[in-house]
Amino acid sequence: MTREEFIPLRDFIYEKTGIFFAENKIYLLESRLSNRLNELGFMSYDDYYFFLKYGNEDSKKELVHLLDVVTTNETSFFRNPPQLDAFKIIFQKNYMNNNDIKSLAYPIKIWSAACSTGEEPYTLAIMILEMIESTKKDIPFMIFATDISHRVLESAKKGVYGPYSVRNMDERIIQKFFLKKGDTYTIKENVKKFVKFEHMNLVDTEAYKRFRFMDMIFCRNVLIYFDEKAKKKVIDNLYESLKPGGFLTIGHAESLHNISRAFKPIMFPGAIAYQKG
Ligand SMILES: C[S@@+](CC[C@H](N)C(=O)[O-])C[C@H]1O[C@@H](n2cnc3c(N)ncnc32)[C@H](O)[C@@H]1O
Prior knowledge:
Helix content is 43%, strand content 19%. With 277 residues, it is of the alpha/beta class. It folds into 2 domains: 3-70, Chemotaxis Receptor Methyltransferase Cher, domain 1, CATH 1.10.155; 81-276, Rossmann fold. The strands form 2 sheets. A 7-stranded mixed β-sheet has the order 6-2-1-7-8-10-9. A 3-stranded antiparallel β-sheet has the order 3-5-4. The N and C termini lie far apart (47 Å). S-adenosylmethionine (SAM) binds at residues 17-19, 71-75, 79, 114, 116, 120, 147-149, 152, 201-203, 220-222, 225.
């Protein structure tokens, strides 16, 4: 891929997703796209770009494949325990120790906003089920899980994982919430039913209208792929999607420094949660 081929493709991907490939990532983009080019029989990256940009209905379908190859979908169950401990503290303090909870007219709404293959939203559902098991209270909750990649969403809906995905989980949790068959672990229906998967592009402001009045949002390990402009846009929109007093968690290596001053950072051991004022 020459620099001249790289720039228009890079800008096209950025415009559609917010994902920004810096110029030193030219080989990364090339390696991710080369198989796709071969499959489609394009002779150059220019041809592929013109097909995407100015083509017909098939080009729109190709966008789905493009998104699948340019996104990084690395994730795992119970990723970053200090952030999950903070989630537990927030959840218990705000919803379980709150005597008004029985009068809640609506379920607690939690959004995993770049959910990849589902490990994050299923982890949150498992944690909530564990927390509320010990209480007699009926605490209604819903988890929305969204991603830009259709491929990961299909996999998340199936909820079938290999031994590598479940490596950090206690045997007790695996036994309780998964069906094991050979080397596969399928998430049980009593967890699945709390998680609603949907396609959603975080840089599409219109799409946020479907996600309002959230109590908590997890948007972890996706902002790192965006440039500052896209980060600001996403964070402003997530702010609007939260209820007053609601919490945002971003990746532990990510920061809101220079991105937003609207949130109040709340410190936990090894983790920060950002609260809407
Ligand atoms: C590295 S995974 C993070 C998964 C999970 N949140 C975690 O921390 O383990 C990043 C996910 O962000 C998704 N993504 C990238 N750009 C996106 C966008 N513009 N809108 C929604 N999701 C996006 C990717 O498809 C990928 O599944």
